[in-house]
Every structure is written in C-alpha cells, then in structure tokens.
Amino acid sequence: MENLYIYIKSIIQLSEQGWSALQMVLSTRYFTKGEYLLKTGEICHSLFYIETGYCRAWHDYGGQTINTNFYFENEFATNIRSMKLGIGSEYFIQAEEDMKVIIFDKEKLYELFSRSVEVDTMDRKLMEEILRRQEKQAYLFKLHTARERYEYMCKIQPQIIKRVPLIHIASYLGIRIETLTKIHNAAK
C-alpha cells in the first residue's frame, strides 16, 4: 500500500489518523488475466487502485470491441457514472495481465466520510483527478489527429506500447491497425 499512500499524499496532505482510518476500509484482491473487474450492466461499487498489472475498459458495439481506456500501475480504474448514479455500467473493465488491486468499496468509504471530513476531501480530490484525465482524453479524441492522439498516449502512458497489443491500441485510438503501424513506425 506504500504506492497508494504516496499517490494520495501527492494529491492531499492526509494525516496519519486519516490514513489509518482509510486503510481499515480498503481490501486487496487479485485478478487473473481475462477476469472482469466490472461487466456491462453491473453497478460499479468500487474504485480500483492498481498495484500491479493493467486492465482495459471496453465496449461491445455490435460485436465489435471498442477500447476506451487502459489503466496501469498507480492509477485508478472505475466507472464513476455507474458508481455515483447507481446504474449499470456501459462498459467492461477487464484484467489484461494478472493484477493486484486495492479496492475502495463505495459503501465502506461513504460510511467513513461521515466520520472523517479529511477522507471525504481526499475522495473528492481523487474524483477530480480521475475526471480531469477523462476530460483531457475526451477533448483530445474529439479534436486531434490520429498521430496527435498516439503521441499523447505515449506521453502519459509510455508502457502502453510495450504491454498492449497493437490491435487494442488501434481500437483505443479509433484508427485501423495499418494506420497505427505507419504512425508507430514513423515515431521510432
């Protein structure tokens, strides 16, 4: 949990008492490659902090896989909309490697908020950070070229090229595999 502690401290100064209280509501879970953290239609009840491994978020659109995000070590994966509104997820989150995940259970976390303003503030800061990243990504995908999207992806998640199959990256960038191969080869 040391990496999680460092991550949280980079966002908010959490006291030792706040950190101890938070640790009491966290749990660790292991997912094997191919296992789902969240399935379409399920209500998301957790934030998943990734200690090791990575996962991807994807939609099944008429039998076609559309990748929408990849989450690596020291990042959070979740479906905020599903969790906040209590509605079924529109996408899957699936382990692409064996993973070790720290789970922030919504119910336990909300109960802790009533006892700790500090932890409640931390949660808001985490949500702001997650939403900031999603907003930046949405803007990029609306207004930028395939090459610019590829360059941004490599900048914020450099491990993606080494760990994610090109077919998944092409889907994520919204381009054909042939186009990605040309962009990738030109960037070398």
UniProtKB/TrEMBL annotation:
Domain Cyclic nucleotide-binding: 29-115
InterPro entries xref list: cNMP-bd_dom, cNMP-bd_dom_sf, RmlC-like_jellyroll
Pfam family, one: cNMP_binding
Recorded superkingdom: Bacteria
Annotated protein name in UniProt: Crp/Fnr family transcriptional regulator
Source species: Dyadobacter subterraneus
